[in-house]
Design a protein that fits this description.
About 40% of the residues lie in helices and about 10% in strands. By secondary structure, the chain is of the alpha/beta class.
């Protein structure tokens, strides 16, 4: 009976749901204002952080928001926009400058034409990068080139770069000596793509250049083909001397003192004329060419434009060194050349001719 009453009593308590405690009816007005101010400060802080982030990500600056009025200022002037854009660009460069890889000094083929190396800078890696070692097929070789061949790979002869470097240095000494003595150097390259390097070499050596077809008989029959070419008399500083126009009309056409041929196979007529008149020649000899055609052969790949540009540029630099030496000696009063059979007149204009020495050169300086 007692157990039954306890169950009934406790069951009524369990059946009755528990009511939650009564909360405070309303918050004060001061708390509401502080909460609103706090939320506004937080939103304004988030807005400033977003502005800073967008300033770093974009190149154009974003005008900031005023903390009191929550409004943007008037638009920037043009000069302010340029200054801010430049500042943003510098910040972006500072942030991204450490990204990526670092480029080490590497081979740049275009420098062979714009800034040719000097003879002292000739190295085997430079010749190898210029494809100077690649010859022709073994079925096209000339047995006279056996001393220049290093070996055979995949049916192609490989030219020894040691021999190429040695012969190129020897050719540089010859070009330098001829330029120092005031000789006329003719650079010839008639294949497609060789015109720019031929002109560059002629400009460096102050010589002549030819990148079109060679006219047969220009040397053997020069008085007929080149008879109308204008000539002039210059002193040791290459300054023109007036008063010799009448004597120049009776003089024969000038002949080059040295010929540099970049493609001997197509210009064998020119090389034959040079041989008949005793004019020394320098030529790029590939494995299919005859090295006896030229006086000073340079065994190399004549089909590679990089190789031809390298050889022409190096020889042009050698001629430039020779011209500088000649100018230095002229300033010291020494003249390194004197044409034969030419009588120097006493000029009334007072132009210095270095005593009894002068020289004759073509007026154009190009072929």
């Amino acid at each position: 009976m007692i157990v039954r009453q306890a169950i009934i009593r406790h069951g009524r308590r369990l059946a009755t749901p528990s009511l939650p405690p009564l909360s405070r009816p309303f918050a004060s007005t001061t708390d509401d204002i502080s909460n609103i101010q706090t939320s506004l400060d937080r939103s304004l802080q988030q807005t400033h952080s977003l502005e800073a982030l967008m300033q770093n990500m974009t190149a154009e600056p974003i005008p900031p928001i005023d903390n009191e009025t929550h409004a943007t200022p008037p638009a920037y002037t043009e000069y302010q926009q340029v200054a801010d854009s430049y500042s943003a660009l510098q910040r972006q460069k500072a942030m991204t400058s450490h990204l990526g890889t670092t480029l080490t000094p590497h081979y740049q083929p275009h420098t062979l034409l714009t800034n040719p190396p000097s003879p002292s800078e000739i190295t085997l890696p430079l010749l190898l990068a210029s494809q100077s070692h690649l010859g022709h097929s073994t079925s096209l070789w000339n047995p006279a080139n056996s001393r220049y061949i290093f070996g055979i790979r995949s049916g192609i002869h490989i030219i020894s770069l040691d021999v190429t470097a040695a012969h190129l240095r020897r050719a540089c000494k010859i070009v330098r000596a001829v330029a120092e003595r005031g000789g006329i150097i003719l650079f010839v390259g008639t294949r497609k793509g060789q015109d720019r390097c031929v002109v560059k070499a002629g400009q460096l050596a102050r010589g002549c250049h030819l990148f079109e077809r060679w006219t047969p008989g220009s040397i053997t029959n020069g008085h007929q083909i080149l008879g109308r070419c204008k000539m002039r008399v210059v002193d040791e500083f290459d300054r023109p001397i007036p008063g010799y126009e009448s004597e120049l009309l009776e003089r024969p056409a000038l002949k080059p003192d040295l010929v540099v041929c970049l493609n001997p196979l197509e210009n064998w007529v020119m090389l034959h004329e040079c041989g008949l008149h005793g004019i020394p020649t320098i030529g790029v000899i590939d494995t299919d060419a005859d090295p006896t055609w030229v006086t000073y052969p340079i065994p190399a790949n004549d089909d590679s434009l990089r190789c031809v540009q390298l050889i022409a540029g190096v020889l042009g630099r050698a001629g430039e060194e020779g011209q500088k030496r000649r100018a230095e000696k002229a300033r010291s009063g020494e003249v390194t050349y004197q044409p034969e059979g030419f009588e120097v007149k006493a000029l009334e204009t007072g132009v210095r001719t270095g005593g009894d020495r002068s020289a004759i050169h073509h007026a154009g300086g190009s072929g």
